[in-house]
Amino acid sequence: MLKLTLLPEEYLTIDGKIVVQLIRVAGGRADVAVEAPRELPVVRGTVLERTGGRRPDCLAPPSGKKARYYRDQVFRWNDDRERAVRAMERVFSQLEQKGSGEEARALRAQLSRIIPAFWEDDLAAQRPISVSSG
Known about the structure:
alpha+beta, 4 helices
C-alpha cells in the first residue's frame, strides 16, 4: 500500500481518472473531495462495513480507540504565533517594570499552559522565546 502525506489543498490522482484533494484538517477530521467517474462507486468505509462489506486487507485494523478531536491536534508553530508570544512577553516585561510582577508571572504561567510543553524545547532551539513561568 502506498501511503502519502498531503497538506490542505494538495491532491493526488489515480490512473488519471480519479482526483482526491485534501480540503482541510480540523478537529481530528479531514475533509476530502473526490472526483471519479460515475460508474466507479465511492463508498465511505464505515458505510461499506455496516452494509456487510469487508475491510480491505491492506488496511491496518481499527485501533479500537475513539477518535480524539481538538485536544490531540498537531500544534503547528508559525510566524503569527511567534509574533503573538513576543507581544505577550513585551507586555509581561512592562507589567514587571510597573511593579506588577505577580500578575506577569501568572500570565506567563498561563502562556506556558497554552503552548504545549513538548514544544518548549523545540521552540527554544528554533528561536529565543521565553514561555516559562520564571
